UniProtKB/TrEMBL annotation:
Keywords: Repeat, Transit peptide. The keyword Protein biosynthesis does not apply. PROSITE patterns: PPR. SUPFAM superfamilies: TPR-like. PPR repeats lie at residues 146-180, 181-215, 216-250, 251-285, 286-320. This is Pentatricopeptide repeat-containing protein. Belongs to the PPR family. P subfamily. It comes from the Eukaryota. Pfam families: PPR, PPR_2.
Length: 368
């Protein structure tokens, strides 16, 4: 009888998502890969802006290539197809290369490319250029504007401290027969809150009603976040009470904004109470939410609560970044909880082999 084969079965090929995750991991490696290797990583993963995870990888690649414009151009022209011109425009904006973004638009002018170009200006912080493009490019290139075009330029106004231009743009929008939507008004609201023009906030809310856009959850969330950014988290919480009375239920994102706000103001008791409310409502945040909360708890010396949250998310295979976990470990060690601190370090070494040396340094610095 022939001897049985000892050959190991061939591993199945990676799925597209697995390839993208591997690409993201390689792009995040330290030290960062050289430009030509970044291009090879993107090609090997066959990245396309059709999926969210691929867009994350492309965005990361563009950021890494900000100082290598030739390679970035090659990425935009060989990895992306001409149909992906709007995404290439945004990538150039992320890398701070607006002339390339404009050139890409001019080679493929369309409404989507125009909207991407204005967004690229916002991302690169060039709001003057965003206004120039909005005012001159549609006629110059025979491109129609749509609601997204107007919403994007209003976002630029909001981020550059010129939100009062919103009113004239809204009039122009309506004259063109374009219907404003919730995003139109939330962009304006965020800007007026940032500039602390509270009378204008009330005017925008009235305009929303006039145009058939009620105070929905997304609108309340923007208002809550804006108040919290101003250090007025108490007012934000009162607004949530008012929202609930009117029949709108808060989401986990509402609580994210409130907890972030109270943490920044040092009111950890209120933040903890809000987190308990989330639990009672069976609401759960994403990894960024828990990472943010654990970070602020460590900053405030609330290591017991931070450890409890860490154990909650560890069950989901979520872990905050190295610096936050280092704060937690050092905080536990400072409270004579050396064994717990070392236990976390061992788990971190297992989960992130590339950070092993960093964790060895943290461990060596712990009290003996």
């Amino acid at each position: 009888m022939a001897p049985s084969s000892t050959r190991l079965p061939r591993a199945p090929p990676l799925t597209s998502v697995q390839k993208t995750r591997l690409a993201i991991s390689l792009l995040k490696s330290s030290p960062p890969p050289p430009p030509d290797q970044i291009l090879s990583i993107c090609r090997a993963a066959a990245l396309t802006p059709e999926t969210h995870i691929d867009r994350v990888a492309l965005s990361l690649a563009a950021s890494k290539l900000s100082s290598a414009p030739d390679t970035l151009r090659e990425l935009a022209t060989t990895v992306l197809t001409p149909n992906h011109a709007p995404h290439a425009i945004v990538l150039f904006g992320q890398a701070g290369h607006l002339p390339d973004a404009i050139s890409t638009f001019q080679s493929s002018p369309s409404t989507r490319s125009l909207n991407a170009l204005i967004l690229a200006c916002i991302i690169s912080g060039n709001h003057t250029e965003a206004a120039r493009i909005f005012q001159t490019f549609p006629d110059a290139h025979g491109v129609k504007t749509d609601t997204v075009t107007f919403n994007t330029i209003i976002k630029s106004f909001a981020e550059s401290g010129t939100t009062r231009s919103f009113y004239s743009v809204l009039d122009e929008m309506c004259k063109k027969g374009l219907k404003p939507n919730t995003t139109t008004f939330t962009n304006a609201l965020a800007g007026f809150y940032k500039e602390e023009r509270f009378d204008d906030v009330e005017k925008v809310i009235e305009l929303m009603k006039k145009h058939g856009c009620g105070e929905t959850l997304p609108v309340y969330n923007v208002r809550v976040q804006s108040l919290c950014k101003l250090g007025r988290s108490g007012e934000a919480r009162a607004l949530v009470h008012k929202m609930v009375k009117k029949g709108t239920k808060p989401s986990w994102l509402t609580y994210n904004h409130l907890i972030h706000g109270f943490c920044k103001e040092g009111d950890f008791e209120e933040a903890d109470q809000l987190y308990k409310e989330m639990g009672m409502k069976k609401l759960s945040g994403d990894m960024k939410f828990y990472s943010m909360f654990i970070y602020y708890l460590c900053c405030g010396g609330k290591f017991d609560t931070a450890l409890k949250l860490y154990h909650e998310i560890a069950a989901k295979n979520w872990v905050p970044n190295f610096s936050t976990m280092k704060m937690l470990v050092n905080g536990l060690a400072g409270g004579s909880r050396i064994d717990e601190a070392k236990g976390i370090i061992e788990k971190m070494k297992e989960k992130f082999p590339d950070k092993t040396e960093g964790w060895k340094e943290v461990e060596a610095a712990l009290p003996q």
